[in-house]
Amino acid sequence: MGTWETDTYNLAICPCGKGHVQQVVETPDNPWSRMSETYELDCADCAKAWEISSYDGTLTDRRSKKEAAQASVASQAASAAVGAYLNSLLPNWPFPSFKTKGAEFEYLLAMGLYKGTVGQYRYLRRAQSLLEIADVHPGSSIVPELVKKLGDPNQYESLVAEAKTAKQTAAAKSEAIKYIHLPKRK
User: Fold this and answer.
1) Distance of CA 96 to the CA centre of its chain
2) This model's pTM is above 0.90
3) Would the pLDDT of 33 be above 90?
């Protein structure tokens, strides 16, 4: 069992100015182990407000990171609402009658209602109906006609607009995350 030598270097003053950002270097006393570098915040206030990467010491503002995560969740929920609305209309869609499962697969693929392979489709079809397998998403070629015939175009456009706004907000919040990159120790 070996021993380790630990050295601590002050790299920079912390964001509030009361403490330091430190690099901790642990070096083994044997040639077969590697040295370890980690970073720490030596300031109680900044440790609450900032996260520090143990890899390169980059500081990340916790509040702006949390806001970006919340905006991302809201964006995913808005996109899911569009998909749920479209899929709620699908059971009333007049599917043509098919002679083979291969013909079903080709139809679903052409309409953008399935993304797998024919083998996967045949396997799923053993236990599920065509409607259980079909999945409408906003990029499906069937969407304009589906909404026009069976849905409410105003409701659909409203859901799409909400999803677009939520996506833009999430992107803006992600870009607004505050980072502080530390200088490297010489």
Assistant:
1) 37
2) no
3) no
Distances (CA, A) of 85 to 137, 147, 148, 164, 172: 10, 10, 13, 15, 26
Q: Which two tokens stand for residue 66?
A: 């949390």
Sign of CA dihedral 160, 161, 165, 171: positive
Residues 41 and 133 in one domain: no
Q: Is residue 31 situated within a structural domain? A: yes
| Kind plus residue range of the DSSP H or E element containing 59 | strand 59-61
d(CA 7, CA 159): 56
Distance of alpha carbon 102 from the chain centroid: 34
pLDDT, one tens digit per residue, over 41-53 is 999 999 999 999 8
Does 186 reside within a domain? no
